Amino acid sequence: MRAADDQRLALPGFINAHSHAFQRALRGRVERRSADHVDDDFWSWRTTMYHDAERLGVDDVEALAAWAYADMVRAGFVAVGEFHYLHHDVNAGPLPQPRLSLAHAAAARRVGIKLVLLECAYLRGGFERPLVHAQRRFVFDDARAFLAHVDRVRAAVPAGTHVGVAVHSVRAVPRDAIVEVAAYARREDLVLHVHACEQAREVDECRSEHGMTPVALLEVCGALGPRTTLVHATCADADDVRRIAATGTAVCVTPSTERNLGDGLGPFGALFAAGVPVCVGTDSHARIDAADELRSLEEHERLRVRRRNVLVRPGAALHEAVLPAGTSAGRRSLGLVDDAGDRVVVRMPVEGRADAAAARDAWIVGGSSSDVLDVDVGGVAVVRNGELVRAPRAAIEDAAVDVLRRLQRP
């Protein structure tokens, strides 16, 4: 009879450093090509996302967040950074309380995941672009109004919920406002996240407006540094990587979403070689699977350079290269210093039962979220035997289905 420990592999708790919880509603609804044969890309996907954003009420947002967060803890994520820019009510009017932020806090508390609310500045439609209708729910008049909102959120969130700030992108926030938000983050010692270099068009438009890349602009604005995380960096060039590394800035990549949206392959090899702290997120949640995000760091780079074990140091193993991206680098990105009591247990891969040294590598290469058995967050059980402890999964999924059905209506 085998010992029980032979069937279980203990891992550190994983960190999901980039989430847009409401975008989980898009999964399966955007995988059809337009009848008029228009090429689909990030920008056509964004049109559908905006359509959803116009229609979601506070209860809808909480239901979708609970669904996404439940699947995160079942996948072994113990904390999530929610990059939150759906600020106003469905009529684009201000809410008396930051109810949409609090909806995420309630959803996280319900399933037991740690939450860092990354309140996001979104101030314009783009360089010389008017706002589209749906963006009205995202936008504040100026940086001062946005930062007043952040102060309200910080005062309102329950104990245990952390708050950081974000700049949506250099296209959605003008230069002087980036300076103000970055200064606020430094003054208040908050983490700062920014979408940067996700799309070639974004880089081209930034060069047109500012004469430099998004990364160079962020450096000029005082927005790079050890408390900053750039999200995606898919189109970052060699000079961008140098600036990121020199300032101690982190990068969060979201390989499953970047594949799903057709964003391209990020410069993972260059970032690792430069010593940039790289973490992972599941972004739009087409897939929520820690093992997939981690192995994709290596596998994407293998596809680019047509070699194997690219990110791995000589003499080291795969898990030594990529596990920190799912653990310590993610905690650093979200400003989480305490991982006491965070624990994940997965089914031991068959290979691990034969050779303990191969266990972690085998799970990263061939494992998935379905292997997760137990998850503890801060010493509290949130998953046991693959099922949620704190909230019935069926009720969470039923509430999400109700929202999805409403979104399908014309």
Describe the 3D structure:
This protein is 42% helix and 16% strand. The chain has helices spanning 42-55, 58-74, 99-111, 143-156, 175-188, 200-210, 214-220, 238-246, 255-260, 268-273, 290-305, 318-326, 328-334, 350-354, 359-366, 393-408, and strands at residues 8-11, 14-19, 77-84, 114-121, 162-167, 192-196, 228-232, 250-253, 278-280, 343-347, 372-377, 380-384, 387-388. The protein has 410 residues and is of the alpha/beta class. Helix 11 packs across helix 12 (318-326) and helix 11 packs across helix 15 (359-366). It has one domain (14-338): TIM Barrel (Alpha-Beta Barrel). The protein starts with 7 loop residues before the first strand and ends with a helix. An eight-stranded parallel β-sheet has the order 2-3-4-5-6-7-8-9, with helices on both faces. A five-stranded antiparallel β-sheet has the order 1-10-11-12-13, covered by helices on one side. It has 16 helices and 13 strands.
